[in-house]
From TrEMBL:
PANTHER family xrefs: LONG-CHAIN-ALCOHOL O-FATTY-ACYLTRANSFERASE 3-RELATED, OS04G0481900 PROTEIN
The protein, known as: Wax synthase domain-containing protein
Signal peptide residues on this chain, from the entry's feature table: none
A GO-annotated cellular component: membrane
GO biological-process terms attached to the record: lipid metabolic process
Main location: membrane
Sections of the chain in a coiled coil: none
GO MF term (any one): O-acyltransferase activity
Record membrane topology: Multi-pass membrane protein
Family named by the database record: Belongs to the wax synthase family.
Every Wax synthase domain range: 269-346
Organism: Hydnum rufescens UP504
Record pathway: Secondary metabolite biosynthesis
Cited InterPro entries: Wax_synthase, Wax_synthase_dom
Amino acid sequence: MEDQNIGTPAESETLVNYCVPRPEDKVRMTLGRSPHIIAAFLTLVTLAALARQPGTRFLRLAILPFAVILTLRLTYGFVWWDFPLNGISFLAGAYSILMIMKVLQLGLSPNGILKLGEKVPGEITVPASDLVVRDPPKRAARAPGSLTLVEHFLSGIGWEFGSGTKIQIPPETRDVSDTSKFLRQTYQSAVIHFLYVDLIDVFISLVPGIGTPDGGSIFVFGQNTVERYLISALLHFITSLSLIYKLHFGYDFLTMIGVGLIGQHPTSWPPVISTTVITSTSMHSFWARDWHQLFRQTFLTLGGYPFQAIFGSSGLLWGTFLASGVLHVWGLYVTGRGTDWDSVIYFGLQPLALIAERAWYRVTKRRVGGFFGWIWAWLWVQVFGQFLTNSWHRRGFSGGIFVPPALSPTRLLLLPKVLPYIQPILQRYFTPTA
């Protein structure tokens, strides 16, 4: 393939155009351009190393602008694949924002990045531990300070920047006392979630519009209003399941690398998402415990803390959710399908649910929960969430390839046998009518 621009060159090579060019101005990532990857990675690693050394503040401030520019350029300036992988493209965009927030944290922290109990980097006066975890599950003992990427870069467990954020870890269901057994259980979990992802994604690929890289709306199916919203609810639900299973599979895969290849302790890879995420009985439990906390520090840094400085304690809540909306908008921008405000609006409204639950507790002295709490949470996640999912599907979020056809058991074994039976159902209920 020729090494050329995808579209017409930009009229002016401004810094903004260099970092985030128009979709038609992107160039293909080739082996000759691999130094962009190395440069962005080296600036991040350098800042991380310097943040653990005293007296490096001015040097970190000098490197910081280059780290931000290189990360933006690497993520938004290139086309990475010749075949549709829109879901993975979204992860690339989310990664960009996550890394930018991380390099800002590494570069701007006056005293560097401190573990719990440290006064200066490397000098521990109190043993580092998971003190920031509320009601933590029982965990096997390990050497102080042996913290993984998940605990440092994402959640902040064991570090000063994560203290006071009420980090919750789902209960562990694997045997962390036996590494071999832990790895077998993680491998079994990865296989199961891989099969779930494959099955769901093949079904989505059969749906006109949303099953293509060009995307489409979930609200165009059905012969009447009731059918239309029942079908959109079904598509939203299976999309949610696909996201959950992909998250499980990816995390299981990284866990096997961390524990099996690198030799980290099983407790360094706690569960990333609760098994009760679909049955949450309040929005507090959904956002604070059941859903993954991988971007918690990013949202706090991007929106929570700045809003708190301006609007007080309530600003922390609103700013954190608004930052989540921004991440999802700019994550999907990588797919080249533009942006809209739907993600920002959906996440920006989430504090209303949490405020309502607090008001309910003040009035009744009872927390939201039980069957009616589940209905309440289902309303926010599975009903209102359809408008968020629709925004993603219009940009082809689920229309790409996650499992290559040659490795897909569903496509190779199951689909040829069941397609003749489900084809009439697809034609009846999943033919666009609006």
